[in-house]
Amino acid sequence: xxxxxxxxxxxxxxxxxxxxxxxxxxxxxxxxxxxxxxxxxxxxxxxxxxxxxxxxxxxxxxxxxxxxxxxxxxxxxxxxxxxxxxxxxxxxxxxxxxxxxxxxxxxxxxxxxxxxxxxxxxxxxxxxxxxxxxxxxxxxxxxxxxxxxxxxxxxxxxxxxxxxxxxxxxxxxxxxxxxxxxxxxxxxxxxxxxxxxxxxxxxxxxxxxxxxxxxxxxxxxxxxxxxxxxxxxxxxxxxxxxxxxxxxxxxxxxxxxxxxxxxxxxxxxxxxxxxxxxxxxxxxxxxxxxxxxxxxxxxxxxxxx
Length: 305
Fold this sequence. Notes:
The protein is α/β, with parallel strands linked by helices. 30% of the residues lie in helices and 16% in strands.
């Protein structure tokens, strides 16, 4: 199979890495610059969308989130769009736990002071352990389940928010989306793992922040648009919440003049929560498996459009 590797993948890893992986599995690959013709390729693996991709029969997004892709246009052109769910549970789960533990043990504050050669100790009441604390995981797909299992392993009480009442491993109590205010009340951490849709856009608003405890932290590893940023800033300024760990932002890259850079108890990461040194292999395996399905006359897995 002829597979093009779009150079937008460079945001996550060197495109040559996945090209080499796919070639080792018998496919012919080439790295494509933005705007290059894709008509000769059976599949294009990409990070983002550009209209020229609609000339390919099949486009595979290396991310789970595909909200930036114009679904209607893919349907109109007959271009199949697949994504990469199910491969981020470990990386996202560990990223979230890293943020939880940093806030609890105040590691982010000590790291900041290290650069100033400051031997200042955090106030006695500032530090705590995550064991026996409550975490509310909003969205219990692959990402949310990965967070829930790891939080449960650390002895945390795990609440989950999802539409279906189906039990989830590691989750002690389930809430429906219309019970979000009840779900976040009393939770030390609120972790966002939902896709960006019409229903979830700006779902974390002033009312949700008001329902959270003033010692609670918001963790966003979903999409920036899930949070009403003005409401977040107001909540931080008004000490309605203790802080936030943000791997997803309304505008990316986060503008240099964003107030979010300046808060001592906000951890900002550049949407890298899913990355690891084997990311290219995880994505490559999905593409190889789907290529085999096509060759066997089967339908594509993880097809969005």
